[in-house]
Design brief:
DUF4956, DUF4956 domain-containing protein, transmembrane helix, membrane
Length: 198
């Protein structure tokens, strides 16, 4: 078992380095979350490897997975993209920790997880659609006019929108918009958009 863990450790460290540094940090430039992913991964790997060496049941290992997931998701607000990286870092630590005795499966699953995140979060896919929650300083009663106004303000093609709130006293509308930016609009898929007043 000691030899298997000696192989699993560098595999795990390489996988989380590629995920957190080569993929996540280079695309999103958030040092805090990249560090959190590495720390989480190494911690889960250490605990799962210890449980495996002590012959603890896999049920307890997956219980740990669930507890860590709940604690992290309740701690603060992060985007759904960051949640994906979080679960991948968690899964890598667990897979490499408890799968040390089956190196081929362990390496194959690690490659699959990292490759999946590389493709799913590729800038070419992320650039296709954006999301904003916008507060307009006018009230449109016609949906066609509303869509035209949104496209003019956002500089792109509106794919879907939903009116969240209409305030006739202040003459404002809150609209949840998903749109595709035009070729001339500078691409910044990593930006988090707050409520925008336009």
């Amino acid at each position: 078992m000691g030899l298997a863990l000696a192989l699993a450790l560098p595999v795990n460290l390489f996988a989380i380095t590629v995920l957190a540094c080569a993929i996540y940090y280079r695309r999103h430039h958030r040092t805090d979350l990249a560090l959190a992913y590495v720390a989480l991964n190494v911690g889960v790997f250490a605990v799962s490897a210890l449980m495996l060496s002590q012959q603890v049941s896999l049920g307890l290992a997956f219980g740990l997975f669930g507890v860590l997931s709940i604690l992290r998701l309740r701690s603060d607000q992060i985007s759904q993209r960051d949640v994906g990286y979080y679960f991948t870092a968690l899964a890598l630590g667990l897979i490499n920790g408890i799968g040390a005795s089956r190196p081929a499966v362990m390496i194959g699953l690690s490659v699959l997880l990292v490759l999946t995140m590389y493709i799913a979060d590729h800038p070419r896919l992320a650039n296709r659609s954006r999301h904003r929650l916008i507060v307009l300083d006018t009230v449109h009663r016609d949906e066609t006019a509303l869509q035209a106004d949104l496209e003019r303000r956002l500089g792109g093609t509106v794919r879907k929108f939903e009116v969240i709130d209409t305030d006739y006293v202040r003459e404002t509308m809150t609209v949840d918009v998903r749109f595709r930016p035009s070729a001339e609009t500078p691409a910044n898929p990593d930006r988090t958009y707050p409520i925008a007043r336009v």
